[in-house]
Structure formats: structure tokens, C-alpha cells
């Protein structure tokens, strides 16, 4: 029997995809904001002169990069409840955001470390010669230049988080992937809901990727002037 594709279910289940899309955006935006904040702090530790802090930050980054996001998600989803039984009724959204931010922080930290290292070492010396402390020089001179260098990479991290947020569906977050699975079960259509979900993910990520590409080209053009 030849399989016949049909998207008539969208008239009934279209709202499922819309609500899933909104949830995916919430997960991604909050995770990226937290990841950028804590990733910046972790990146500063990665270039710290304190050997202990530098070592601990390196251990954290290697742990995150060396373990699957799914494992990290399960650790937060069930580990928080085991460690704090009073949190048993918390929304599953919370551990998912924490897990995504926890994962993103490590990658942003490495992006930030590379951005800081890309700034000429003379900038730090210039700041110190003006009477500023190391932290003041880092905050006022080094970090603004580093952020300018890493903005395209941060944009790519946002795209990555949008795609990786789909893994939260396995613990019951009503994101885009979860809603697509609900529609598949309700309509007995195995492919079409996934195709719609894939298209919506593309709608989110493709413009961002192109925007970051244009921004990167503009930065290279300005740097060459």
C-alpha cells in the first residue's frame, strides 16, 4: 500500500505546534541568558591567575563537554528531587532550564576564554599602566573587545540550544518535539507532525544562522579597514 501524505490535521492540532513553539523559545532564551551570564563568569575563571579556580573551572568544562546532555538532564530532573524532596512538585520546566543553562555555560565559557585570549595582551598592560586593577581592566577594556569578537559564536550557541532543547521532551516538557509526538499519537500520522516540527525548528534557527553569518562578515570587513 502506498503511503499518502496528509496535513489536514493542522486545522485541528495547529495550536499544539504553536504552544510547543512558544515553550521551546522560552526554554532556549532563558537557558542562553543564564548560560551567557554564568559562562562569562566561568570564562573569567578559565583565564584566572588563581590556579585553584582555573583548575576547578577546567574540571567543570571538561565534565560538561565529556558527558551527554541527556545524562545531565536526568541528573537535574531527578537529582534535585532526591537531594531536595520538597521540590518534588516543582515544574519540570525548571530542571530543564537548569540543565540547558548548565550545559551552555561550559561552551560559552570556552567561547569567552577564546575571546579574551584573542585580545592583545598589551591591552591589559595599558590598563594597568593607567592605574586600573586587573579586574577593572578586564571589565572596562578586555571584556568589551572580547564580546565583540565572540558575538557570532554566541549566536551559534543560541541556535544550538534551540535544537538541543528538543531533548527536554523526554522528561515531559510540552515543547515543540513533545507536541509533535502528541499529534503523531492522536492522528496516527508517523511522519507529517515530525515534518511540521522540523520546519518550525528551521524557521527559528535558519534566520538566526544567516543573521550571525552577516554579522560575522561585517565584523571581518570592519577589522580589515
In short:
This protein is mostly helical and 225 residues long. It contains 8 helices and no strands. Helix 1 (10-46) packs across helix 4 (93-118), helix 1 (10-46) packs antiparallel against helix 7 (176-187) and helix 5 runs antiparallel to helix 6.
Annotation keywords:
mainly alpha, MetI-like fold, 80% helix, 225 residues, single chain, 8 helices
Structure description:
This protein has 225 residues and is mainly alpha-helical. The chain has one domain: MetI-like fold. Helix content is 80%, strand content 0%. The chain contains 8 helices and no strands. α3 (69-83) packs across α4 (93-118), α4 (93-118) crosses α6 (134-164) and α5 (121-129) runs antiparallel to α6. It is globular, with a radius of gyration of 21 Å.
The averaged pLDDT comes out at 90
Give the class from helix and strand content and strand pairing: mainly alpha
Number of separate structural domains: 1
Number of extended strands: 0
Q: How much helical structure, as a percent, in the residues? A: over 70%
CATH class (first level) name: Mainly Alpha
Characterize the main sheet: none
CATH topology: MetI-like fold
Distance between the termini: 63 Å
Estimate what percentage of residues fall within beta strands.
under 5%
So how many helices? Answer: 8
Order of helical and strand elements: HHHHHHHH
How would you name the CATH homologous superfamily? MetI-like
Cα radius of gyration in angstroms: 21 Å
Low-confidence stretches: none
Task: Show the helix and strand layout.
Blueprint: H1 10-46, H2 51-66, H3 69-83, H4 93-118, H5 121-129, H6 134-164, H7 176-187, H8 192-224
Amino acid at each position: 500500500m502506498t503511503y499518502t501524505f496528509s496535513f489536514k490535521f493542522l486545522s485541528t492540532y495547529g495550536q499544539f505546534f504553536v504552544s510547543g513553539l512558544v515553550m521551546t523559545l522560552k526554554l532556549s532564551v532563558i537557558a542562553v541568558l543564564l548560560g551567557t551570564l554564568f559562562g562569562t563568569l566561568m570564562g573569567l575563571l578559565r583565564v584566572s591567575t588563581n590556579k585553584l579556580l582555573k583548575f576547578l573551572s577546567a574540571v567543570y568544562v571538561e565534565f560538561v563537554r565529556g558527558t551527554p546532555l541527556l545524562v545531565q538532564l536526568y541528573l537535574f530532573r531527578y537529582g534535585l528531587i532526591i537531594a531536595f524532596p520538597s521540590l518534588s512538585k516543582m515544574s519540570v520546566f525548571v530542571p530543564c532550564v537548569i540543565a540547558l543553562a548548565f550545559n551552555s555555560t561550559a561552551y560559552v565559557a570556552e567561547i569567552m576564554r577564546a575571546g579574551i585570549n584573542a585580545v592583545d595582551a598589551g591591552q591589559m598592560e595599558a590598563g594597568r599602566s593607567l592605574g586600573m586593577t586587573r579586574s577593572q581592566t578586564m571589565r572596562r577594556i578586555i571584556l568589551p573587545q572580547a564580546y565583540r569578537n565572540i558575538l557570532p559564536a554566541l549566536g551559534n550557541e543560541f541556535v544550538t540550544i534551540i535544537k538541543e532543547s528538543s531533548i527536554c521532551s523526554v522528561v515531559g516538557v510540552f515543547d515543540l518535539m513533545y507536541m509533535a509526538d502528541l499529534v503523531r499519537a492522536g492522528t496516527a500520522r508517523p511522519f507529517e507532525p515530525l515534518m511540521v516540527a522540523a520546519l518550525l525548528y528551521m524557521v527559528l534557527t535558519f534566520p538566526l544562522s544567516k543573521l550571525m553569518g552577516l554579522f560575522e562578515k561585517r565584523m571581518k570587513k570592519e577589522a580589515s579597514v
